[in-house]
Amino acid sequence: MLSQLSSSVDKSSLMPLKKKILLVEDEALFARAVVKRLQKAGFECEHAESLSDARLLIKQFEPDMALLDMRLPDGNGLDLLSEFIARNINTIVMTAFGDVSDAVNAIKLGAIDYLKKPIDLEELLLIIQKNEKTTELQTSLDYSRQRNAVANDSVQLIGESTPMQSVRQQITRIAQLSALSDAVQPTVLITGETGTGKDVVARFLHGSCANHDKPFVHVDCASLPAELIESELFGHEKGAFTNAVSSRPGLIESAEDGTLFLDEIGELPLGLQAKLLNVLERRMVRRLGSTKERPVNARIIAATNRDLYQMSNEGRFRSDLYYRLNVITMKMPPLRDRGSDVLLLANYFRQLTEKRYALPHHEFSAAALMAMQTYHWPGNVRELRHQISRAVLMCTQSMISELDLGLPQVGMNQVASVLQGDSQVTLDDAEKAMLLNALEQSRNNVSKAARLLGITRMTMRYRMDKHGISV
Questions:
Q1: Three-state secondary structure call for residue 100
Q2: Peptide bond into 118 cis (omega under 30)
Q3: Distance of CA 81 to the CA centre of its chain
Q4: Which domains does the chain have, with CATH numbers?
């Protein structure tokens, strides 16, 4: 079946398209030689002898590049150059005259290069191939930037709890600092348990600052292979080690003027921590096998779920690097301390899943909502997202029940006791019952009751006032 399907596909559609080059040249003998050499090199080439012929071929042939002679039978090549530039056609101009004023004017108007006749065909081919690589790299970079821009624009910080309000205030302040000065921005260290959304905050912070249109480079220090991590971070020159067949910039250098996000930095080997400290201190990076240093202008954000202070005391993390990273610290709260943010996040992830898979709208039952608020969420927001996505995908009804969530039976006894025998119970009734049950178990100790429910004391007080509960 697979072979039949593969054979039905037009194989020509899988081949890379040839680059189209339009040659505008009135010397027939030279033109034939150029066309023959370019076709041999794998390009698709058309020839025009005049400006009028070229204007027709622009529409019919739709070239990617043009080779343009300056002196033509019906005018000057500069008259056609503006049309090439307007259509984003890279143009190399050619002139047979000693005076290069036309060529200089052409460069000013947007031509990528110029050549004086007589022209060496191999030199011409090298210039064309060099431009082709430059164009591909620029296209790839533009795509990468657009992709990052879309990703950053779609990042949202969901939550109205006090801890999340504090996070937002810190992000706002950091963005203000970024706008006040062009100086290198201070390093930000984001801490918190696994799954709390440290990477989301890093992207949100990048999108909130002045460099939001620059690259965002995410480096997962825990997943980089030990034998390649130094080369990946710092880059290398050709011949620096076996299989280094070409020079390559590292991830630090690739961040340019944007943001370098070092995720799980606590996993970085001690040997590389000294090199990273040097980058942070001097804002310079040197590739493997090179004697040249390159400037690092990117904002650096690091994240970890480890206690770097304790690790530094134990000799497992450089204390000087820890203090250098610990300029501005943001602590991401665990989901169990975010109160009703659980429900906001659950609805957000539900909507995302429904939209992604074109599914109908679902609702959470009262028991499902209480189960989510009662559960401890050891995996934090990441666990919540996976559980909600699974429930939405597998639920065949319009109502998602507590069983669809597949959570451990934590706190489900009090949920069941409220709902049992009363199909008309409201969410407020169920919530009030849970609060009273928790207060009874804690002997009216509000702090302990809050811990039992997995919410903050402030949230507990707010909900008690809401239901008129006093102790």
A1: coil
A2: yes
A3: 37
A4: 11-132 (3.40.50.2300), 155-333 (3.40.50.300), 336-467 (1.10.8.60)
Say if CB 341 and CB 401 are below 8 A apart. no
Tens digits of residue pLDDT in 10-58: 433 333 456 899 999 999 999 999 999 999 988 999 999 999 999 989 8
The whole-angstrom separation of Cα 326 and Cα 344 is: 31
Give pLDDT, residue 349.
Answer: 95
- How many other C-beta atoms can be found within 10 angstroms of the C-beta atom of residue 56? 11
Q: How many CB atoms lie within 10 A of CB 347?
A: 16
437, amino acid identity: N
- pLDDT, residue 348, reads 94
Q: Residue holding tokens 């100790």?
A: 445
Supply 432's token pair. Answer: 């009030």
- Between strands 328-331 and 216-220, the pairing is unpaired
Rounded Cα–Cα distance for residues 331 and 353 (Å): 28
Question: What is the three-class DSSP state of 327?
Answer: coil
CA–CA separation, 82 and 93 (whole Å): 12
Distances (CA, A) of 320 to 266, 333, 450: 14, 26, 39
Tell the residue number behind the tokens 């019919």, with chain if given.
Answer: 60
Cα–Cα separations (whole angstroms), residue 303 to 23, 119, 187: 54, 56, 11
Distance CA 45, CA 18 (A): 10
Q: Which residues pair with 90 in a beta bridge?
A: 65
Distances (CA, A) of 167 to 171, 191, 197, 202, 209: 6, 12, 12, 11, 15
Angle, nearest 10°, between helix axes 446-453 and 427-441? 120
Q: How far apart are CA 339 and CA 379, in angstroms?
A: 16
